[in-house]
Amino acid sequence: MPEYYSRVLKQMEKVSENDLFEALLLLSSSTSFYTGKEILNQIKNMAVSGRGIAMYYDAKIKEMLALLVEWYDNRNAYKNSDKILDTDRKAIEGLIALLSQKLKKPLPISECRKYTCMSKGKLSFIFRQITNKTISEYYQYLRVEKSKELLVATGKNIEQIANIVGYQTHAAFSAVFKLKCGLSPKEYRQHHWQNKQEKGW
């Protein structure tokens, strides 16, 4: 990496070697730099041979470093939510409203990017800055909240509710619900109805 920095990154504006290594350290605790994993998997599963190997590695390393620099720049640019532009904030708010309508079939990241007109890196950072969650985590949050509503306001069974909020199996839904709420869906419903009866609702 130091050799590659001296040949390539030194030519880039506003990127010091310290910046690069700080970003690398921060990535170890980040869940948003998912694209890097995709590139590593591509390298691992590459089918290139002969003279093309060196060119392939070189291109993939450049791609990884470009993403890393974007990640670092976005992180610094949006550390403070007060710095987020109104247009970007409104785009995320609109996306959140759209996500809540797509619980059964989540929007792929590519569609989220199109909706907000943001790069993967920018979308990931601004979304997390505003919600304190990744898009995946926020989807899980929306599903749990919607399932709570259905559990207390309808007589639908657990399997039906799991399907409505986008879980393929009753078991997967129940496991996530209990992890987030501390109660199984059945226990949550019983607890709510018991409270209603005690209060005479």
Features:
201 residues; elongated; mainly alpha
Descriptive overview:
By secondary structure, this protein is an all-alpha fold. Helices cover 71% and strands 0% of the residues. It has 11 helices and no strands. Helix 8 packs across helix 11 (185-199) and helix 9 packs across helix 10 (170-181). The model is unreliable at 26-34 (pLDDT under 50).
How is the secondary structure organized here?
Blueprint (H helix, E strand, L loop, with lengths): L1 H6 L9 H11 L6 H11 L7 H26 L8 H15 L8 H8 L3 H12 L3 H19 L4 H7 L5 H12 L3 H15 L2
Helix pairs in contact: 2-4, 3-4, 4-7, 8-11, 9-10
Counting helices, strands and paired strands, the structural category is mainly alpha
Helix content: over 70%
Main β sheet profile: none
Q: Could you give the order of the helices and strands?
A: HHHHHHHHHHH
Total beta strands: 0
3D shape: elongated
**Overall pLDDT score:** 77
N- to C-terminal distance:
66 Å
Number of helices: 11
Proportion of residues in extended strands? under 5%
Uncertain regions spanning at least 5 consecutive residues = 26-34
* Radius of gyration, in angstroms, nearest whole number: 22 Å
